[in-house]
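Hey everyone, long-time lurker, first post.

I ran two proteins through the pipeline my lab uses and got sequence/structure pairs for each. Pasting them in order. The first:
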Amino acid sequence: MLYIVLSASIHGVEGEQHSSSDRVIFLLPSASASQAASGWSATALRCFNLSGSPSRVPVMASKVIPWYKKKHVSQVKTDYAYHHTQSVVKHQTERKSSSKSLSQVQAQATEAMAEPAYTIPAFRQRTAEGTEEYQRVSTNVGKGLVVIQEELQRMRVATKAKVDSLAIQREVKNMMVKRLDILDDIPKMPDFLIALRPHTVWEKTPVKLFCTVQGTPRPIVKWYKGGVPVDPLSAPGKYKIENKYGVHSLIISRCVVSDTAEYSAVATNPHGTASSKAMVAVKRPAGAGELCHLGLVPHLTEIHASKLEVTLLDRFSVSFGVEDGSISLVCTMVVVPDLPNVPPLAQWYRDDKLLKPSSLVQMSVGGGVARLTLPQLAKDDEGLYTLRIFTKDGTAEHSAYLFVSDAASSKPGAPGAPMSVKAYDINSDYVLVAWKPPNTVNEAAITGYFVDRCEAGKDSWVQCNDSPVKVCKYPVHGLSVGHSYHFRVRAVNSAGTSRPSRMSDKVTALDAAESERLQGTEEGVPSAPGKVVATRNTKSSVFVQWEAPKALKNLMGYYIDGRVVGAKDWFPCNHKPFKHTRFVVHGLIPGETYAFRVQAVNVFGLSDESEESSPIAVESALATPSAPYSITLLNSDGSSITIAWKSPKHCGGSKVNAFYVDKRNADTLVWKEVNLQAVTERICTIDSLTEGTFYEFKVQAANMAGVGVPSAPSAAMKCEAWTMEEPGPAYDLSFSEVRSHSLVLLWKAPIYTGAGAVSGYLVDMAKKGSSEFVTLNQEAVSHRYLKVSGLEEGESYVFRVRAINAKGVGKPSQVSEPVCAKALPGTQEIVAGVDEETGDVFLSLEACEICDTSKFVWSKNYKPIGDCPRVAVTKKGRTSRLTFTNPDKDDLGKYSVVVTDTDGVSASHTLTEDALNTMLELSYAIRHPVVPLKHGLNYEILEKGHVRFWVQAVKLSPSVSYRFIVNDKEVTNGEGHKISHDVASGIIQMTVDLFTRANEGTYTVQITDGKAKTQSSQVLVGDVFKVALKEAEFQRKEHIRKQGPHFSEYLHFTVTEDCTVMLACKLANVKKETTFHWYREDDEIVPETPPNVMSGACALPIPLFSRKDQGIFKATLSDDRGKDTSVFDISGQVFDDIINAIAKIAGSSASDLVLQCTPEGIRLQCYMNYYTEEMKTIWKHKESKIASSEKMRIGGTAEMAWMQICDPSDKEKGHYSIEISDGEKTHTRTFDLSGQAYTDAYEEYLRLKAAAFAEKNRGRVVGGLPDVVTIMEEKSLSLTCTVWGEPTPEVTWFKNEQEVASNEHTRVMFDGGKFASLVINKVTPDDSGKYSINVRNKYGGEFVEITVSVYRHGEQIPVAKVGQPKTPAATPASTPVPPRSPAPPSKTPTPTPSKSQTPMSMKSPTPASTPASTPVPKSPTPTPKSPTPTPSRGVKSPTPPRFMKSPTPPRK
């Protein structure tokens, strides 16, 4: 034990400090003095005075006050057990001097201690020697205590100085923080606190460049390499740019020599730009193609993947896939350190079996992401997937189930594909293939399986069994030794064959294969599983358990089926046999009720179904609620604080009905209960608090399962009276009607209103993660809700609300939780309607999500309705209905409903006056029923002249009754009236057989159907009745007409594709004896093809239809039973309709405009199927209509329409078009006659014009010469012809291509410029030959040949042939081609024809002279004034005409 003497400071009642010289002994455990001075618990110290009398020294409770809550006071209170400084303001603490002297205090203390006299008991009395020894020991102890006291005093002063120093440091730190906060608000351009530094690294190693930048607002940093921006996407995995805690870094992984460059970081904000540069040099080790600068490769410490710290973040959830689809399971993580070349070691498992990478399983890890991709799903892939990552502290794991459903079958009702195909008992030519059967829920039972094999490396599959095998195993024989095979299986039922299973792993046919053999020889399917129990799990899943079947028989697993209670069809919960007797069924609809059953599976198939489980609603398992959160300070008056909080995010499956609040002084660690009685509202006022003290609070929620975990402690709240004039913060911000682009924000009014009442609110919004709030309403809203629109779908936002009164804007509320602008799946809106049975007007909502504890909370204008006599709220399943008891204008407004204990299911609907009036009308109709009518009472005339009155109701019951009343008299069935009804169609009808003038009047039908009644009337009087009567009489006559042959369709016209107009009609009730005739204007028309009445149709074609075809056409049909006539008047509008129909076809077939030049001008032509001038055709030039004139001639033929520009000039250039109108559409064709097109056309026109003029005026022989002449020797021959030309042509005669000169034997004459003659006196055989005449002027000429044959007397007259002049007799021959004219010596030369063109240029032998020549007929002489004087030459050879143009000779 250690005795310590301390001087005591005793505090008086009035707070004054007194010093005492008395010393007190503390009996302490053996310890150092420094420990005693530093403070023990006050309750562990006991005090004694020196005289040995026990005394209680007042001990103060220890209290630790945080540095940020210390007050500035002038007193220092000291406790011997615990030395604590209350407040430090300066380096030296001021003390109040005592009003009494030190001696007075010591005296009073001595008296006070001496007052309680102490009598030493007899057993404690000492002898004289004992007394002396006691005094000696006391003296020595006193001296030791004095030394200890002085040491403790010194330590106390040092401790106080240390505490003061620490307090000052904290105060300085506080001031620095405040200064930094002030500096943060001062605009400042970017500045690099830590600049980039150069690096030299080895090839294939990473390098990290980093820098620290400051500036206000925070600068944006961009990285550059050699002045070019660094784009991480250009080389994925090469670059990584980070910004953590103000440190900007650029990581270059696996550097190469080309990465050597100058890198720079450029920081920018609105106030300026700053940059930092550094050089990165990448070296290649010696022997790697480049000299190593240092001569060695640096050693990098190897970091194993298992030494990394890994924390899993976003984890993959329960997933659902379909066969042949793909899916990726992704898990994000934080890796420390994050090394690009050392990724974490991750392993994937399926049902606790390690997966290995393959074409069907793809794995990747790196960049903070672990990913498993299944590119081609099959039911074999279904199972529990686990990601296991090895970390520094062990392993991090996450598991979730993957469900794979059957793909759509090619044939409805076909089974799903088998799975888990494996080969067992492998031999050289024999393999046993086994598989697992698919689940059959609503399909027909499986009747067997087909097994296919495929040799590895090939694509062709071969079916192994001819007939389906019924068990799930099959021995495959006939394999080739050493060959590898794959196998697959297809299931068969009555509907068809399933898709093939996934093929098995490769199997090689070899002996002594070391593979597992299929065990079990028991045959038959397992027995049905036992009792099935389903229990609550989560809001979308159910936990199902069952008893294993009694007869397992090599069980493979179980199939679990489910169905919605009330539905007939079952759905599969798993698609691959599950081995355990418990299963979690996911993907269920929250709030829906289900039942489950189980089947066992082995190689022989599926067992019988188990009994159904009891129905269970899909809800979360019952548990205590989660912690409330977001504790907010609403008011403080100096002695109490009002707080509010938000409900737990998870209610635990039952309603949260109580809250408990705890408090503590911020200086202590001890929590105290505030309320023993539960608080039912989310607001509480805590009384009896100390003003100026900081308090912390926490809240617990309770439900029927118990009290949940407490919330996190609130921020320290100071209890001080609020005196500000502005209002306090609004609170309890919540969201409703969250949609893709809008939501409704609601809040509660502030508790503290300030100097006046709250007049409105301002709402601020910011994107999640941003501190830049934007005020949504420039004008304050008086209500406590606001619809926010214009949101980005999928974006998250936060909100806050500020209250306003007359003094200004108050404190903002606590920032709301982030909300994502996205509607819940299956969200529906409020529906307004009227109950069909009761006629009640209601609003209803079907919730997409609900649980047992959910409630539908209805509001009007976002104020809870509660118990209101105007409305009644009912709930049935997922639907809640708000029914109006007596709806009127007071019920107008915006109604909203919120479903509690969901993820925000809510909706709203604005009830307008028009909508309410419409529903009130419908409500009245339901409550005061009438028989609704589709059609009121109507009438129609039937074919025999009968008149039918009818009315149609929307719906009729079999018990309907009705009656017809005509002119106030009821009409019954019979007496010329037939009355009936049809319940299915709702028609009630009455038929009047003979409708006459006596039937004029009012018709009424009265209907009664249960409680509903109605009536409808039809008035037939005056003109309306006359029209009906006329139609009835006409129908009676028509009926009589149709008893004999008649026209079922009267004459009408059609137009064929070749624009032939057809008058057509259809016939009925004809026979072979029936005759048919056509007439036009009473003149019978006999068509080329007689009409066939038995065909039922006749037609009369009118080709090339025009105005001349107008008239009255008539068709008659007659036999012994009667006669019928149809008349068709083609005139007026009918004629116009026919022309329009022709124009429609012709216009559609019209070609593009074609340019054609003539000697008269330029012509534009449009070809079409048919053209007639009656068609509405318009020619336009530059959008101006062209009228036919001498300049512009318009015409056409049956094949085309044309427009000719006579004697064109530049004025006629431009755009031309033809418009053909058919009354509905205008067909337009265009031609641009300008530019080169006009130039070419104009030149062609001039050429043709000149050629026509030359042809008209050239020299020519117009008659008088024969083709062949035979003459007897010694006779005289005269060849005479008439010539014409303007100017007068020149005439030249030739014999055998030699010009004939005029002499006594041969005379050449040309009289009057018209008659040319060649006379040969006393012809001789030498005169035989080919003679020709050339008539020519400046415009051209003509060359005519005559063959002359001279024969001797007594010789047979030779038959002369063209081109064979030597024949002995001459007869008429074909016209020869003009010979080449020899060049005359003194006249204009004439071109000579080629020899190939003049085969007759050979000389004929001289014939014997004959007494006379054979006469040749001559043509009459034409009149010179004829513009084209080319008349016939009389008798001609059967060959083509002999006249040919000779080329125009050049003139000298």
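...and the second, right after it:
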Amino acid sequence: MCGQALITRPCVLQGRLRAGRREPSRAGGGAGGSQLHPEHLDCGAPHLQHPLSILQPLEATPMFRALGLTSVAVASIDNYTAVFLGTVNGRLLKISLNENMQVVSRRVVTVAYGEPVHHVMQFDPADSGYLYLMTSHQIAKVKVAACDVHSTCGDCVGAADAYCGWCALESRCTLQQDCANSSQQHFWTSASEGPGRCPAMTVLPAEIDMHQEYPGMILQVSGSLPSLSTMEMACDYGNNIRTVARVPGPAFGHQIAYCNLLPRDQFPPFPPNQDHMTVEMSVRVNGRSIVRANFTIYDCSRIAQVYPHTACTSCLSAQWPCFWCTQQHSCVSNQSRCEASPNPTSPQDCPRTLPSPLAPVPTGGSQNILVPLANAAFFQGAALECSFGLEEVFEAVWVNESIVRCDQVVLHTTQKSQVFPLSLQLKGQPARFLDSPEPMTAVVYNCATGSPDCSQCLGREDLGHLCVWNDGCRLRGPLQPLPGTCPAPEIREIEPLSGPLDGGTLLTIRGRNLGRRLSDVAHGVWIGGVACEPLPDRYTVSEEIVCVTGPAPGLLSDVVTVNASKEGKSRDRFSYVLPLVHSLEPAMGPKAGGTRITIHGSDLHVGSELQVLMNDTDPCRELMRTDTSVACTVPEAALAAPVPVCVRFERRDCVHGNLTFWYTENPVITAISPHRSPVSGGRTITVAGEHFHMVQNVSMTVHHIGREPTLCKVLNSTLITCPSPGALSNASAPVDFFINGRAYADELAVAEELLDPEEAQQGSRFHLDYLPNPQFSTAKREKWIKHHPGEPLTLVIHKEQDSLGLQSHEYQVKIGQVSCDIQIVSDRVIHCSVNESLGEAEGQLPITIQVGNFNQTIATLQLGGSETAIIVSIVICSVLLLLSVVALFVFCTKSRRAERYWQKTLLQMEEMESQIREEIRKGFAELQTDMTDLTKELNRSQGIPFLEYKHFVTRTFFPKCSSLYEERYVLPSQTLNSQGISQVQETHPLLGEWKIPESCRPNMEEGISLFSSLLNNKHFLIVFVHALEQQKDFAVRDRCSLASLLTIALHGKLEYYTSIMKELLVDLIDASAAKNPKLMLRRTESVVEKMLTNWMSICMYSCLRETVGEPFFLLLCAIKQQINKGSIDAITGKARYTLNEEWLLRENIEAKPRNLNVSFQGCSMDSLSVRAMDTDTLTQVKEKILEAFCKNVPYSQWPRAEDVDLEWFASSTQSYILRDLDDTSVVEDGRKKLNTLAHYKIPEGASLAMSLIDKKDNTLGRVKDLDTEKYFHLVPPTDELAEPKKSHRQSHRKKVLPEIYLTRLLSTKGTLQKFLDDLFKAILSIREDKPPLAVKYFFDFLEEQAEKRGISDPDTLHIWKTNSLPLRFWVNILKNPQFVFDIDKTDHIDACLSVIAQAFIDACSISDLQLGKDSPTNKLLYAKEIPEYRKIVQRYYKQIQDMTPLSEQEMNAHLAEESRKYQNEFNTNVAMAEIYKYAKRYRPQIMAALEANPTARRTQLQYKFEQVVALLEDNIYECYSEA
């Protein structure tokens, strides 16, 4: 051995190194079996002071053989030996040997594709858990074992990995040094101990009666565990339900523990239609579950509910100790609860009905039915009823103690035949039945249904249906004669029209009156004189016969006859022909299969089944045939040899033709050149090898970074040329070839497949190094080159330095459509000249240079003279000069007028500014007081009304772009409790049960499960999304819906969902980078953009709730408080205080506050003082009162203003019901004015009472929906035609400039400024305890993608980040607070939030705001604050960038935690069913995309998709229509 546990090369000391059978060794460094030379005999001589001398040669038997081994390292662990073997293909084989030196496990690790592992391998001296090794270009540190892939002890120990064992108290698979206290006994179980030593537990008692008290539970714990007596233990029942557990004393191996049963009120609910439930419990030690077991809780009393028709029988045959009480008709677990009466003790003693056959009865027919009974003495004389299902109940009369008669039973059906189960129930007690283990059934038929012709009608006689044919199928009367014969058979179609002479063709005959039963036509089908034997299992009464043709004596063509007492003949003729085969091409192909062969002959289209067999056993696939040829794909063969080709029809003898196909050796690829390609692809790669003359088609694909595979061209038997595929990034990647549709694999790959089939085909001998595309420019980097037609043209093109090594023939330069002949090519310069004319006309021609698929336009060639351009320029300049003089004169005139107007208004502006300051100061102080009270109330009461996570998700994912939107807010009718609170629960289809009929559920669930597994295949899902997005009728609404449904379906696998989203984003970035990268993610027009929105919503929910929620809610409250401080027009919605100009009340209406003492009848709260304005309508007053009484209740539970009445007690004897419209309403200019507090003259401190009303008065409807032509509140609508009729006061009001009231916007803004600043700071700040991991991860991803594409513009990155987080998530939340809180978002609040959202958008933008007097107010209002906000945004982005980068493992752990946190919140089956509807709609396009994708073809995804469609096609729409 040359070194310690490290074999560098064979140490041959004397003679020839032989195995146990004296054979040459093939393992090791490739020196096996060769003749020794003198230099081989100095093993390690250069490293030793004295040469070694061995007299006796070493002999050994090989334990493992494999080709291409380059290095070995060995380690001994406990009773196991771990051997690490390097290969020439860049892989590390790990083999575990037991103490008998037998191989017990194998594993393959890929280190570097195609690079041989160096013979030196060394274990890490500091940590034996790692192994150092080298390849041609790198050194790798490989972990000796991946124990964490095993999640259970059985998997961990059963894997037989020498390094891995089960850490009992940490409940995970680890290396021994990674497990705490592993040196002590029973803490760590090694693989050598076997799975039998894994911790296990048994619970006593294993079955628990629901109604019995238990002092505790005994747990028998076995397996390799340390003593638990001194440890903190608990029994965990899930859902955070735990009880104390204890071990009385120290013990090992088998330990006894005692545990309290979970409290009865915390028992989980019983599953529907089940009398028991299985509960999983685990023992937790030091906070970790170390062992699990199940026990059962049963309830005997549920048996009668679950099995109402066999209650007694099911009770006494249950697996639990249950007893039946006849008197109470109940099942109990304690027999003492039964009253004194004869109670059965076995299922045979139960009172029950006995089965008795009944003849079928026509619909509407009356009959008496005798029902035999057993053990019914107890019930004799009791009033019984005969039940035939829903609402089909008839009187039952006792005949004797063992027979009951059902009198005058009349049943109806609209079906051909319907079975009604008969059961006896106690009269007046519909839930109590006599047992009917084998229920009697009554068959009711309807002759008028399901029999469209005579044969089908009369054929029902075999079923006992008394029907007769008389211009339709009718019930046979008692005096009518027996039915006669039917008309002659009518043959409408036969298929196929020809068959071979040997017969055996399945001939399908369709028509009418083709016999009442099979016996009518069993010997009555003929083709001329040749019989055709009907198949019983394929016969359909009257409609279809499938028969097997007999052999014919010779060529024959005749009609088909069917004789069923009368004879019918077909219009078409069936022909017996003799198919022949002549030749086969090609006659040879590789043994790997895939060769497409064509067999020529005549009459090859005949018969119902054709087979082509290679070597008489292996079928040829993908068969297509015509009259003269059959094409198919040959299967693979084990050996290279000639095989006979058999063409046979109808599984009979082979057609004579002596066809032979030669399987030859597979093509061999020896090298490819060049090994470099530009990232755009298209470079010609020459593939060298042997046997290429047999290749029909070949394609080239690149792993990991490659785009679509490319088709290659076979030049001769030794050369193939392939255009290199495009790549996603600059990197080195393995290359694979597909020859005749089969993946190419050399013998080395086949050998590795024997080692580990899962790792097979992952390596490749060939690689392509992808480098950046070459860059070109003109000699002086000019973009325009002038050229006069007729003159010679020579171009000098500069090329940036690259390592592609391109040859001159690989460049192509064009000027327009004319090629430029390349004359000189060097590393930096290309010379080319144009010999033909470029044309005499003036114009512009692009100069482009192409390398493979890369195409770059470097300049534009300008043709023609410039005299005309000079004349045109002079004319244009003259006209512009004249226009400038005129414009200057007009400007000076208007400037003088504007100056006089400015002086006039300057004094007014100063006065207004003073008023604004005063108004802001007072408003801010008042609002601060109100908000301080509100903040205290939030802390004292129930807090902020956050929506649950599931409602946040459904509202965010499905705003208005989903087909589920119409069902989203299906609310039940509101009911009010004693406190006046409305109990409403928002529902959504994705949150409830999957509503499908039970009959469809098994098939549907199986199909949806298969479809779910397909969606969890990354290749399928990406092809699926791309295929749908390519359809023109797949609208943006559908894209949003699909993205949200995918998010719900994959919510439990956010890691997988994130990987899919990233791959789709890479495609989107590539598409955007080729156009305008700054526009990426600006809108939501693709599936991945909506997926990103949803992903951000999920990942930012915690931040939204814990950090941003409170300042956002306080801002909303502040806006509402500020708006309510002034007048609000109830019809137009315009208000005195607002942030939005369009919602500003441009009138000076004085409003005085009124403090009202209000009591709410039916509410337990005391009366409250409510502040309102005297200009408020009565509906507005009601809303303020409701807000005061329900301020600690979510808005969805509030009563509505329409649900309550408001009564004013003017005196002790007088009271008035206050309404918006009544007989006292004032009419002005033909319009009714809504009543207000001022209209009713309600004084300060008035006493009002609000009460709930029984019915809503809908005569008025919502105030804001009233016709403005008939009603108004504060301001009548402007009407120019009615101007002469207006009063003097109204005319004076109109003269006031409405813009003068814009100052109120500033007042409202100044009042709310502090709350807005707090909100923006909360959004754009980072908490140290909870950093935004998702934001950091995604921003790093964007920076990585920009770097790969050479995008270094910081503005582009800023725009990408802004479009992905602030504009995609935060703006959506700011404009839609109802997504987060259970509140009322009025139209006015929505308008104010739009202004705030616009300010946030401007703060995140990098473009300078060009504002002027004509700019909209929603941009002008916060123009002063935008620069400061921008600094905060930039600082936030910088802080994100400075955060420690996240590894994929850390992010996956974070995403897994998010998935676990909200698991089982959504019904993924509903989401899958909705996704399947899209798959069904675009099924052909999806199939075409899967067929075109080589990876999908290789994994047969199209066939799996077809399985899903076949399973669901007949169920999904029927089930949904039934539901």
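Reply from user beta_strand_b:
Welcome! Quick read of the second one: Residues 823 and 832 are 5 Å apart (CA to CA). The longest strand covers residues 288-298.
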